[in-house]
Amino acid sequence: MTMKLIRIVVWLGICQLAGLVSLPFVGPNMGWFHGLIEPPLSPPNSVFGPVWAVLYVLVGIAAARLFYRGLSKPLYPAAVLLIVQLVLNASWTPVFFGMHNLPLALSVIVLMLAEGFFMHRAFGKHSKLAAGLLWPYWIWLAFATYLTAGFMMLN
Questions:
Q1: Which letter, b or e, does each residue of 57-73 get, where b requires 16 or more Cβ atoms within 10 Å of its Cβ?
Q2: What is the sign, positive or negative, of the torsion defined by CA atoms of 115, 19, 100, 140?
Q3: What does DSSP assign to residue 94?
Q4: Contact present, 127 and 65 (Cβ < 8 Å)
Q5: Per residue in 6-17, pLDDT tens?
Q6: Which of 46, 72, 130, 136 satisfies CB 3.0 to 4.6 Å to 62 for a cystine?
Q7: Does the predicted model carry a pTM greater than 0.85?
Q8: pLDDT tens digit string along 83-119?
Q9: CB distance 66 to 127 below 8 Å
Q10: Contact at 8 Å (CB) between 86 and 17?
Q11: CA 110 → CA 4, 82, 117, 130, 155, distances in Å?
């Protein structure tokens, strides 16, 4: 394996972790979730897993593209923003599903949306391709923010 391929695999793994650590909170709380009033435009539950998996792959590829030569001082802000984004992302599911705390989940996802904007800008300063790969993630975050706000207002 070349070093470039190893870096891609490492970044893909790091980004997938955000979704994997939150999975245990979903299944046991689906009964509660199905009792909620859904906002308009809510997709079927079967959409969320595949969409997030693809988005984490895109973020992982963007990170691998940005940090393909390693982590240098000019890239520190982008790396910090990526890690903060992944931590926020991993925390939303336990807050929403585990704690059933819709206002706090909305706060977390609004932070994710704002922080995702700054992450996109930081990536764009060094790689237009990496920043472009983040667009679907940011657009989905905007939609997920709408859904979270809708769940909070309707329930």
A1: ebbbbbbbbbbeeeeee
A2: positive
A3: I
A4: yes
A5: 888 888 999 999
A6: 130
A7: yes
A8: 999 999 999 999 999 999 999 999 999 999 999 999 9
A9: yes
A10: yes
A11: 34, 16, 11, 22, 18
Place of tokens 């079927």: 44
Using left for φ > 0, alpha for ψ between -120 and 50, and beta otherwise, residue 39 falls in beta
37 — alpha (psi -120 to 50), left (phi > 0) or beta? beta
Would the CA dihedral through 62, 1, 87, 79 be positive or negative?
Answer: negative
- Residue 66: both structure tokens together: 């940005």
CB 134 within 8 A of CB 142: no
Q: Is the pLDDT of residue 71 over 70?
A: no
CB burial of 118-150 (b: ≥16 within 10 Å; e: otherwise) equals: ebbebbbebbeebbebbeebbebbeebbebbbb
148's tokens: 């979270």
Integer Cα distance of 50 and 19 in angstroms: 11
